[in-house]
Amino acid sequence: MAGAVLVIMGAMLIALTSSAWPAIRRFGLAFVITSTWDPVAGEFGALPFVYGTIVSSFIALSLAIPLGLGVAIFLSELTPGWLRAPIGFLVELLAAIPSVVYGLWGIFVLVPWVRASLAPSLKATLGFLPLFEGPPLGIGMLTAGLILAVMVVPFIVAVSTEVMGAVPRSQREAALSLGATIWETTRTAVLPYARSGIMGALFLALARALGETMAVTMVIGNVPQMRSSFLAPAYTIAAVIANEFTEATGDLYLGALIYVALILFLVTVAVNILARLLVARVASGPALIRE
Amino acid sequence: MDLAYLRRRWTNRAMIVASLVCTLAVLAPLFFILSFLAHTGLGALNLDFFTRLPGRRASPAAAWRTPSWEPWS
């Protein structure tokens, strides 16, 4: 089965590379560091999309990591047994909502709220930073990051709760018997033991954030530019593929889009492999008790 | 009471409250989305929505787009 997966991935890699070959031959690796995207002139560069993807994923993980870990600690260490299953179910329900529904909610609820409330208050308090300059349009990287954070939190919670639940009970009992509080037990006995698994959860969430298409496309603004402000519209790799694939005429335009897809594919595969390795490391045994 | 003990106890309480707040903050969007869908979507539901095909003159915009010379108009 694992061999079949590898064969399929290899076939996808070959298909993407061969389809993207006109753009690879024309632009080479400079494609990744060029910011021009002009289908009329036949000039293509993926840097604005790479930038938008990385920044929106960074915003999402900055919000989702503390929230997700807080929920995981609450579920695994604090919640009584009868309450754990309903809360866990509700959190997992967030992962079951289709991304287009997230996008609709983003357009009709989140974008107006960001435009009217969040962005003006951020500008009023942190407006001196280049991260929050420019008009509060509502659409932009901040809104995309917020949507992505909501979408990736269930992954962090689910994996982290499982990993923290796998920590031997004797670890907790030893800490509690020494007079540690619940938080001290979590901090000194549970989190170090589960560290690699939690890192795996974060990488899985990152992979999801990097590849998310529909919800981000609906709220990020779809402008191929690189601005330092989180309030400015931007574009992501997945969004440009979804928006422009049907109108791509000519081998070079199509090849450029598939080249962008190849970059996303390689980055996502690398992140997933790293996550699997970290999760496998924590599952292989208690090699983390160093403190 | 020992100051260090008090600090540890308050830190413990603060972290428990923080984790509870995180849980509520994560669950809030779920209820926002469900209430948004229910509020905007339930009003459009009726039996015809499930049992009839969309009419050609479903809206003024659709009627405006329908050319009068079409043989079926």
Please provide a written account of the structure.
The complex is a heterodimer of chains A (291) and B (73). By secondary structure, chain A is an all-alpha fold. Chain A has twelve helices and two strands. Chain A has a two-stranded antiparallel ribbon with strand order 1-2. In chain A, α3 (47-78) runs parallel beside α6 (141-165) and α3 (47-78) crosses α9 (195-211). The longest helix of chain A is centred in the C-terminal third of the chain and has 33 residues, at 251-283. By secondary structure, chain B is an all-alpha fold. Chain A binds chain B through residues 66-71, 73-75, 78, 87, 90-91, 93-94, 97, 101-102, 105, 108-109, 150, 153, 157, 181-184, 186, and chain B through 8-9, 11-12, 15-16, 18-23, 25-27, 29-30, 32-33, 36-37, 40.
Could you say which overall geometry of chain A the principal axes of the C-alpha atoms support? globular
List SSEs of chain B in N-to-C order: HHH
Secondary-structure class of chain A:
mainly alpha
Cα(first) to Cα(last) distance of chain B is 88 Å
- Structural class label of chain B: mainly alpha
Chain oligomer state: heterodimer
Mean of all residue-level pLDDT scores of chain A: 90
Uncertain regions spanning at least 5 consecutive residues of chain A: 287-291
Rg from alpha-carbon coordinates of chain B: 28 Å
Total helical elements of chain A: 12
Helix content of chain B: 55-70%
Q: What is the overall pLDDT average of chain B?
A: 80
Strand order of the largest sheet of chain A: 1-2
Instruction: Please report which band the strand proportion of chain A falls in: under 5%, 5-15%, 15-25%, 25-35%, 35-45% or over 45%.
Output: under 5%
Distance between the termini of chain A: 39 Å
Q: Roughly what fraction of the amino acids of chain B lie in strands? A: under 5%
The helix tally of chain B amounts to: 3
Low-confidence stretches of chain B: 67-73
Helix % of chain A is over 70%
Q: How many strand elements of chain B?
A: 0
